[in-house]
Amino acid sequence: MALFGAHMSAAGGCHNALREAQSRHCDTVQLFTKNANQWSARDFTSDEVRLFRDTLRDSGLRFATAHDSYLINLASPDPALYRRSLEAFTVEVQRAEQLGLSYLVMHPGALMGAAEEDGIARVVRALDDVHARCPGYGVQVLLETTAGQGTTLGWRFEQLAAILSRVAAPDRLGVCFDTCHVFAAGYALAPRKEYLATMAEFDRTVGLDKLRMFHINDSIKPLGSRVDRHAHIGRGQLGLEPFRLLVNDPRFEDRPMILETPKEEDDHDDMDAVNLEVLRGLLTGRRAAKKRG
Ligand SMILES: [Zn+2]
Questions:
Q1: Cβ neighbours for 154, distance < 8 A, ≥ 6 positions apart
Q2: DSSP label of 11
Q3: What is the pLDDT of residue 2?
Protein backbone atom coordinates (compact mmCIF):
# COMPACT_ATOMS: atom_id res chain seq x y z
CA MET A 1 0.00 0.00 0.00
CA ALA A 2 0.98 3.62 -0.34
CA LEU A 3 3.57 4.81 2.16
CA PHE A 4 2.77 8.29 3.44
CA GLY A 5 5.04 10.63 5.37
CA ALA A 6 6.30 14.18 5.67
CA HIS A 7 9.45 16.23 5.84
CA MET A 8 10.13 16.60 9.56
CA SER A 9 12.32 18.98 11.53
CA ALA A 10 15.55 17.57 12.95
CA ALA A 11 15.76 20.31 15.58
CA GLY A 12 17.46 18.94 18.68
CA GLY A 13 18.92 15.97 16.77
CA CYS A 14 18.09 13.98 13.66
CA HIS A 15 16.35 11.26 15.69
CA ASN A 16 13.68 13.84 16.62
CA ALA A 17 12.51 13.89 12.99
CA LEU A 18 11.79 10.17 13.33
CA ARG A 19 9.87 10.70 16.56
CA GLU A 20 7.85 13.52 14.99
CA ALA A 21 6.98 11.26 12.06
CA GLN A 22 6.03 8.42 14.38
CA SER A 23 3.78 10.62 16.50
CA ARG A 24 1.87 11.60 13.33
CA HIS A 25 1.46 7.96 12.24
CA CYS A 26 3.70 8.37 9.20
CA ASP A 27 4.91 5.32 7.26
CA THR A 28 7.99 7.15 5.99
CA VAL A 29 9.95 10.37 6.65
CA GLN A 30 12.31 12.93 5.13
CA LEU A 31 14.75 15.19 7.01
CA PHE A 32 17.75 17.46 6.61
CA THR A 33 20.78 15.88 8.27
CA LYS A 34 22.24 19.40 8.72
CA ASN A 35 21.04 23.00 8.39
CA ALA A 36 19.84 23.31 4.77
CA ASN A 37 20.94 26.94 4.54
CA GLN A 38 24.51 26.41 5.74
CA TRP A 39 27.50 24.88 3.99
CA SER A 40 29.07 23.01 6.86
CA ALA A 41 28.08 21.10 9.97
CA ARG A 42 30.01 19.40 12.71
CA ASP A 43 30.35 15.64 12.30
CA PHE A 44 27.89 13.32 14.01
CA THR A 45 29.16 11.78 17.24
CA SER A 46 29.00 7.99 17.50
CA ASP A 47 26.28 8.41 20.13
CA GLU A 48 24.16 10.46 17.73
CA VAL A 49 24.53 7.85 15.01
CA ARG A 50 23.62 5.04 17.41
CA LEU A 51 20.60 6.93 18.77
CA PHE A 52 19.34 7.64 15.25
CA ARG A 53 19.80 4.07 14.04
CA ASP A 54 18.13 2.62 17.16
CA THR A 55 15.22 5.06 16.87
CA LEU A 56 14.82 4.28 13.15
CA ARG A 57 14.82 0.52 13.77
CA ASP A 58 12.24 0.78 16.55
CA SER A 59 10.05 3.27 14.66
CA GLY A 60 8.93 0.94 11.87
CA LEU A 61 9.41 3.87 9.44
CA ARG A 62 10.42 2.73 5.95
CA PHE A 63 12.61 4.44 3.33
CA ALA A 64 13.86 7.19 5.66
CA THR A 65 15.23 9.88 3.36
CA ALA A 66 17.49 12.93 3.56
CA HIS A 67 17.18 16.08 1.44
CA ASP A 68 20.37 17.96 0.56
CA SER A 69 21.25 21.60 1.33
CA TYR A 70 19.67 24.34 -0.81
CA LEU A 71 23.11 25.94 -1.33
CA ILE A 72 24.54 23.06 -3.36
CA ASN A 73 24.70 23.61 -7.12
CA LEU A 74 26.50 20.84 -9.01
CA ALA A 75 25.69 22.54 -12.34
CA SER A 76 27.38 25.82 -11.39
CA PRO A 77 29.67 27.37 -14.05
CA ASP A 78 31.57 29.13 -11.21
CA PRO A 79 34.53 26.82 -10.44
CA ALA A 80 34.70 27.84 -6.77
CA LEU A 81 30.98 27.26 -6.19
CA TYR A 82 31.14 23.98 -8.12
CA ARG A 83 34.02 22.67 -5.96
CA ARG A 84 32.34 23.83 -2.77
CA SER A 85 29.10 22.15 -3.89
CA LEU A 86 30.91 18.91 -4.71
CA GLU A 87 32.55 18.81 -1.27
CA ALA A 88 29.29 19.65 0.50
CA PHE A 89 27.31 17.07 -1.51
CA THR A 90 29.88 14.37 -0.72
CA VAL A 91 29.38 15.15 2.98
CA GLU A 92 25.58 14.92 2.50
CA VAL A 93 25.97 11.44 1.01
CA GLN A 94 28.34 10.39 3.81
CA ARG A 95 25.95 11.65 6.52
CA ALA A 96 22.97 9.88 4.94
CA GLU A 97 25.00 6.65 4.77
CA GLN A 98 26.12 7.01 8.41
CA LEU A 99 22.48 7.29 9.50
CA GLY A 100 21.47 4.27 7.44
CA LEU A 101 19.04 6.23 5.23
CA SER A 102 17.58 4.76 2.05
CA TYR A 103 17.68 7.87 -0.13
CA LEU A 104 19.24 11.32 -0.47
CA VAL A 105 17.09 13.65 -2.59
CA MET A 106 18.97 16.40 -4.45
CA HIS A 107 18.09 19.20 -6.84
CA PRO A 108 20.13 18.68 -10.03
CA GLY A 109 21.35 22.30 -10.07
CA ALA A 110 21.00 25.69 -11.74
CA LEU A 111 22.64 26.83 -14.98
CA MET A 112 23.31 30.43 -13.85
CA GLY A 113 23.57 31.55 -17.47
CA ALA A 114 25.57 28.57 -18.74
CA ALA A 115 24.44 26.36 -21.63
CA GLU A 116 22.19 23.42 -20.70
CA GLU A 117 24.63 20.89 -22.17
CA ASP A 118 27.49 22.23 -20.06
CA GLY A 119 25.38 22.25 -16.90
CA ILE A 120 24.30 18.65 -17.43
CA ALA A 121 27.93 17.65 -18.09
CA ARG A 122 28.99 19.22 -14.77
CA VAL A 123 26.24 17.43 -12.84
CA VAL A 124 27.26 14.12 -14.44
CA ARG A 125 30.94 14.69 -13.58
CA ALA A 126 30.05 15.60 -9.99
CA LEU A 127 27.86 12.52 -9.49
CA ASP A 128 30.61 10.31 -10.95
CA ASP A 129 33.10 11.89 -8.54
CA VAL A 130 30.81 11.39 -5.55
CA HIS A 131 30.15 7.76 -6.49
CA ALA A 132 33.89 7.13 -6.82
CA ARG A 133 34.51 8.72 -3.41
CA CYS A 134 31.73 6.70 -1.78
CA PRO A 135 32.21 3.12 -3.02
CA GLY A 136 29.77 0.44 -1.90
CA TYR A 137 27.37 2.84 -0.19
CA GLY A 138 23.80 1.69 0.44
CA VAL A 139 22.19 5.14 0.22
CA GLN A 140 20.85 5.99 -3.22
CA VAL A 141 20.86 9.53 -4.64
CA LEU A 142 17.54 10.68 -6.13
CA LEU A 143 17.41 13.53 -8.64
CA GLU A 144 14.32 15.62 -7.94
CA THR A 145 12.04 16.90 -10.68
CA THR A 146 12.03 20.71 -10.40
CA ALA A 147 9.54 23.47 -11.26
CA GLY A 148 12.02 25.09 -13.63
CA GLN A 149 12.15 28.27 -11.61
CA GLY A 150 14.97 30.63 -12.65
CA THR A 151 17.72 28.65 -14.38
CA THR A 152 17.20 25.35 -12.55
CA LEU A 153 17.73 22.06 -14.36
CA GLY A 154 15.50 19.01 -14.01
CA TRP A 155 12.12 20.47 -14.96
CA ARG A 156 12.05 18.68 -18.32
CA PHE A 157 12.06 14.89 -17.99
CA GLU A 158 14.63 14.82 -20.83
CA GLN A 159 17.15 16.65 -18.62
CA LEU A 160 16.89 13.99 -15.91
CA ALA A 161 17.11 11.29 -18.58
CA ALA A 162 20.27 12.91 -19.97
CA ILE A 163 21.95 12.85 -16.54
CA LEU A 164 20.90 9.25 -15.86
CA SER A 165 22.07 8.04 -19.26
CA ARG A 166 25.52 9.62 -18.96
CA VAL A 167 26.65 8.78 -15.41
CA ALA A 168 29.06 5.88 -15.00
CA ALA A 169 26.89 4.14 -12.36
CA PRO A 170 23.21 4.78 -13.25
CA ASP A 171 22.12 1.98 -10.89
CA ARG A 172 23.14 4.19 -7.96
CA LEU A 173 20.65 6.91 -9.00
CA GLY A 174 16.89 7.26 -9.06
CA VAL A 175 14.32 10.04 -9.38
CA CYS A 176 12.03 11.77 -6.87
CA PHE A 177 8.83 12.99 -8.57
CA ASP A 178 7.49 16.19 -6.97
CA THR A 179 3.83 16.69 -7.97
CA CYS A 180 3.92 20.48 -7.44
CA HIS A 181 7.13 20.89 -9.42
CA VAL A 182 6.09 18.63 -12.32
CA PHE A 183 2.78 20.50 -12.63
CA ALA A 184 4.43 23.93 -12.44
CA ALA A 185 6.91 22.71 -15.07
CA GLY A 186 3.97 22.18 -17.45
CA TYR A 187 2.98 18.50 -17.12
CA ALA A 188 -0.73 18.01 -16.37
CA LEU A 189 -1.68 15.44 -13.70
CA ALA A 190 -5.46 15.35 -14.20
CA PRO A 191 -7.92 14.36 -15.53
CA ARG A 192 -7.03 10.68 -15.81
CA LYS A 193 -6.14 10.89 -19.52
CA GLU A 194 -3.64 13.69 -18.84
CA TYR A 195 -2.24 11.91 -15.76
CA LEU A 196 -1.64 8.78 -17.81
CA ALA A 197 -0.05 10.80 -20.63
CA THR A 198 2.38 12.48 -18.21
CA MET A 199 3.35 9.14 -16.64
CA ALA A 200 3.78 7.64 -20.12
CA GLU A 201 6.02 10.57 -21.03
CA PHE A 202 8.06 10.01 -17.88
CA ASP A 203 8.31 6.31 -18.71
CA ARG A 204 9.40 7.01 -22.29
CA THR A 205 12.15 9.44 -21.24
CA VAL A 206 13.39 8.52 -17.73
CA GLY A 207 11.70 5.12 -17.17
CA LEU A 208 9.18 4.40 -14.41
CA ASP A 209 11.64 1.87 -12.94
CA LYS A 210 13.75 4.90 -11.91
CA LEU A 211 10.88 6.54 -10.00
CA ARG A 212 11.68 5.73 -6.37
CA MET A 213 9.63 8.26 -4.39
CA PHE A 214 7.20 11.16 -4.57
CA HIS A 215 7.12 14.59 -3.00
CA ILE A 216 3.41 15.05 -2.68
CA ASN A 217 2.50 18.73 -2.73
CA ASP A 218 -0.31 20.79 -4.24
CA SER A 219 0.70 23.94 -6.14
CA ILE A 220 -0.26 27.55 -5.49
CA LYS A 221 0.83 28.49 -9.01
CA PRO A 222 -0.83 27.24 -12.22
CA LEU A 223 0.23 24.62 -14.78
CA GLY A 224 3.37 25.71 -16.63
CA SER A 225 4.02 28.71 -14.35
CA ARG A 226 7.53 27.42 -13.54
CA VAL A 227 7.12 28.85 -10.06
CA ASP A 228 7.67 26.60 -7.02
CA ARG A 229 5.06 27.29 -4.29
CA HIS A 230 3.68 24.35 -2.32
CA ALA A 231 0.04 24.21 -1.19
CA HIS A 232 -1.87 21.85 1.08
CA ILE A 233 -3.30 18.76 -0.62
CA GLY A 234 -6.46 19.65 -2.53
CA ARG A 235 -6.25 23.35 -1.71
CA GLY A 236 -4.10 24.48 -4.67
CA GLN A 237 -4.23 24.47 -8.45
CA LEU A 238 -3.89 20.68 -8.58
CA GLY A 239 -6.98 19.91 -6.50
CA LEU A 240 -7.69 16.40 -5.23
CA GLU A 241 -7.95 14.45 -8.49
CA PRO A 242 -4.20 14.07 -9.26
CA PHE A 243 -3.63 12.75 -5.75
CA ARG A 244 -6.57 10.34 -6.01
CA LEU A 245 -5.08 8.97 -9.25
CA LEU A 246 -1.57 8.77 -7.78
CA VAL A 247 -2.28 7.07 -4.45
CA ASN A 248 -4.44 4.46 -6.19
CA ASP A 249 -2.01 3.78 -9.03
CA PRO A 250 -0.89 0.15 -8.54
CA ARG A 251 2.47 0.96 -10.14
CA PHE A 252 3.37 3.15 -7.17
CA GLU A 253 1.95 1.02 -4.37
CA ASP A 254 5.22 0.69 -2.45
CA ARG A 255 6.68 4.14 -3.20
CA PRO A 256 7.20 6.57 -0.31
CA MET A 257 5.07 9.73 -0.69
CA ILE A 258 6.42 12.66 1.31
CA LEU A 259 4.54 15.87 2.14
CA GLU A 260 6.54 19.12 1.96
CA THR A 261 3.64 21.40 2.80
CA PRO A 262 3.50 24.14 5.45
CA LYS A 263 3.21 22.76 9.00
CA GLU A 264 0.70 25.26 10.37
CA GLU A 265 -2.33 27.23 9.26
CA ASP A 266 -4.40 29.77 11.15
CA ASP A 267 -7.28 27.36 11.54
CA HIS A 268 -5.19 24.27 12.39
CA ASP A 269 -1.85 23.77 14.08
CA ASP A 270 -0.97 20.35 12.67
CA MET A 271 -1.40 20.46 8.91
CA ASP A 272 0.69 17.31 8.37
CA ALA A 273 -2.02 15.36 10.20
CA VAL A 274 -4.71 17.06 8.09
CA ASN A 275 -2.90 16.40 4.79
CA LEU A 276 -2.14 12.78 5.71
CA GLU A 277 -5.81 12.23 6.52
CA VAL A 278 -6.83 13.73 3.16
CA LEU A 279 -4.38 11.44 1.32
CA ARG A 280 -5.46 8.30 3.17
CA GLY A 281 -9.10 9.28 2.56
CA LEU A 282 -8.43 9.14 -1.20
CA LEU A 283 -7.45 5.47 -1.10
CA THR A 284 -10.11 3.29 -2.68
CA GLY A 285 -11.01 -0.40 -2.81
CA ARG A 286 -8.38 -2.86 -1.67
CA ARG A 287 -5.99 -0.11 -0.56
CA ALA A 288 -8.60 1.56 1.63
CA ALA A 289 -9.42 -1.83 3.19
CA LYS A 290 -5.73 -2.45 3.91
CA LYS A 291 -5.46 1.00 5.46
CA ARG A 292 -8.32 0.18 7.85
CA GLY A 293 -7.00 -3.31 8.55
ZN1 LIG B 1 10.15 18.48 -3.34
A1: 107, 108, 109, 143, 144, 145, 146, 148, 160
A2: T
A3: 80
Q: Which domain holds residue 177?
A: 3-292
Nearest to 86 by CA among 67, 73, 70: 73
Give me the residues of the chain with pLDDT under 50, please. 293
CATH of the domain at 253: 3.20.20.150
**Cβ atoms < 10 Å from Cβ of 90:** 15
Determine the pLDDT at residue 252. 96
Q: What protein residues have CB closer than 5 angstroms to ion ligand 1?
A: 178, 215, 260
The helix (H) or strand (E) run that includes residue 175 is strand 173-178
Residue 77 is which amino acid? P
Helices (H) then strands (E): counts for the chain? 10, 10
State the distance from the centre of ligand 1 to the C-alpha of 293, rounded, in angstroms: 30
User: Measured in angstroms, how far is the CA atom of residue 126 from the centroid of ligand 1?
Assistant: 21
**Considering its fold, how many domains does the chain have in total?**
1
CA 107 to ligand 1 center in whole angstroms:
9
Residue 47 CA, ligand 1 centroid: distance in Å: 30
